[in-house]
Each structure stands twice: as structure tokens, then as C-alpha cells.
């Protein structure tokens, strides 16, 4: 970055999320299934924006899996990295040349998440939007 360059905070932080939901496509216990994820953003997300999901403690990634396919709102797909701490990092959630407008709802399908061992509340989850800067 050049000396004297100013970056406004709103260009670094994608913003507040509301209406966050996470739900397995199949509710049977111990089944590997698609995980439906949705949220509404209060600020525009630009091309290249990503999402970090900390799964509820009751859901898990099958042993040995390091990547998951994610189907994006526009029907395209990307590859998510499986991270320690029951987290999934989804890069390029917003396609090149596109934006997710303020007030718009993103709907994602994360393929290959394992349901919990019993029929009960799976626990809380966390979404964190990611902004990637050039350079």
C-alpha cells in the first residue's frame, strides 16, 4: 500500500448481517447432508467477498474432508476450505463483476456436512463476512 493512502472503514468491513439461518436439508441424525445457509446483508458486498461459518457444535465435517463444494445464490459453485474449530471458509461468495446489494438475501448450499448424533438443538453458529483487498 502506498504511503498516504486512506481507506474508509466501510470499505474494509462488509457490514451487518440479519435474518441468519442455517438448516440441514435432511434432519436425520448422523446423516451427511447439504446445509442450507442464508442471511440478509445491510451493506453491499462486492465481488470476491467471502464468508466464514462457525458451525453449531452439533454439526461436523466428516473425518478427512478438507474441502466442501458450495452452491452460491446465482447457481454457480465454489470450493470452501474446512478449518480447525468447526469452521468453513467460503471464498468468492459474490461472483466476479457482481454485487450483493444491501437488503438482499444470500442463500448458499454447503454440501457434505454431518448431522449430530441425536435429535436436539445443534447449538449456536457464527457468520463472519470477509473482505479481500488487492495486493
Keywords:
135 residues, mainly beta
How many domain modules?
Answer: 1
Low-pLDDT segments, ≥5 res: none
Radius of gyration: 16 Å
Averaging pLDDT over every residue, what do you get?
A: 85
Number of strands: 10
Silhouette: globular
Number of H/I helices? 0
Strand order of the largest sheet: 1-2-9-5-6-7-4-10
What does this entry look like structurally?
The structure is a single chain. The protein has a single domain, classed as Sandwich (Immunoglobulin-like). The radius of gyration is 16 Å and the shape is globular. The strands form two sheets. An eight-stranded antiparallel sheet has the order 1-2-9-5-6-7-4-10, with no helix packed on it. Strands 3-8 form a two-stranded antiparallel ribbon. It contains no helices and ten strands. It has strands at residues 17-24, 32-41, 45-46, 50-54, 67-71, 77-83, 87-90, 99-100, 105-114, 126-130. The model has no long low-confidence stretch (mean pLDDT 85). It is mainly β and 135 residues long.
Question: Could you give a quick summary of the protein structure above?
Answer:
This protein has 135 residues and is mostly beta strands. The chain has no helices and 10 strands.
Secondary-structure blueprint:
Blueprint: E1 17-24, E2 32-41, E3 45-46, E4 50-54, E5 67-71, E6 77-83, E7 87-90, E8 99-100, E9 105-114, E10 126-130
Antiparallel strand pairs: 1-2, 2-9, 3-8, 4-7, 4-10, 5-6, 5-9, 6-7
Amino acid at each position: 500500500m502506498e504511503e498516504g493512502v486512506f481507506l474508509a472503514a466501510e470499505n474494509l468491513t462488509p457490514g451487518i448481517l440479519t435474518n441468519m439461518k442455517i438448516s440441514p436439508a435432511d434432519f436425520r441424525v448422523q446423516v451427511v447432508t447439504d446445509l442450507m445457509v442464508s442471511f440478509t446483508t445491510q451493506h453491499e458486498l462486492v465481488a470476491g467477498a467471502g464468508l466464514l461459518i462457525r458451525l453449531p457444535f452439533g454439526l461436523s465435517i466428516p473425518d478427512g474432508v478438507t474441502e466442501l463444494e458450495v452452491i452460491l445464490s446465482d447457481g454457480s459453485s465454489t470450493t470452501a476450505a474446512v478449518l480447525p474449530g468447526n469452521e468453513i471458509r467460503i471464498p468468492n461468495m459474490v461472483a466476479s463483476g457482481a454485487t450483493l446489494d444491501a437488503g438482499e438475501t444470500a442463500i448458499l448450499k454447503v454440501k457434505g456436512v454431518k448431522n449430530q448424533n441425536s435429535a436436539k438443538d445443534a447449538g449456536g453458529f457464527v457468520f463472519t463476512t470477509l473482505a479481500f483487498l488487492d495486493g
